[in-house]
Amino acid sequence: MNRRSDPLHAATPATPDRRRALEILREVFGYTQFRPPQDAVIDTLAAGGDALVLMPTGGGKSLCYQVPALLRPGMGVVVSPLISLMQDQVAALRQAGVRAAFLNSTLDAAQARDVLARLHAGELDLLYLAPERLLQDSTLARLAEVPLSLFAIDEAHCVSQWGHDFRPEYHGLSVLADRFPEVPRIALTATADARTRREIIERLALEQARVFVSSFDRPNIRYLIQQAPGSPRDALLRFIREHHTGDAGIVYCMSRRRVEETAAWLCAQGLEALPYHAGMEAAAREANQRRFLDEEGLIVVATIAFGMGIDKPNVRFVAHLNLPKSVEAYYQETGRAGRDGLPANAWMTYGLQDVITLRQMMAASEADEIHKRAERVRLEAMLGLCETTRCRRQALLAYFDESLDVPCGNCDTCLWPPETWDATEAAQKALSCVHRTGQRFGVNYLVDVLLGRDHERIRGFGHDRISTFGIGRELSAEQWRTLFRQLIAAGLIGVDIDGHGGLHLTEACRPVLRGVRTLELRRARPAPARSARRSRSSTPVETFDRPADRALWDALRALRLELARAQKVPPYVVFHDASLAAMVAQRPRSREALAAVPGIGAAKIEAYGEVLLEAIAAAASD
Question: Would strands 520-522 and 420-422 be described as parallel, antiparallel, or unpaired?
Answer without folding.
Answer: antiparallel
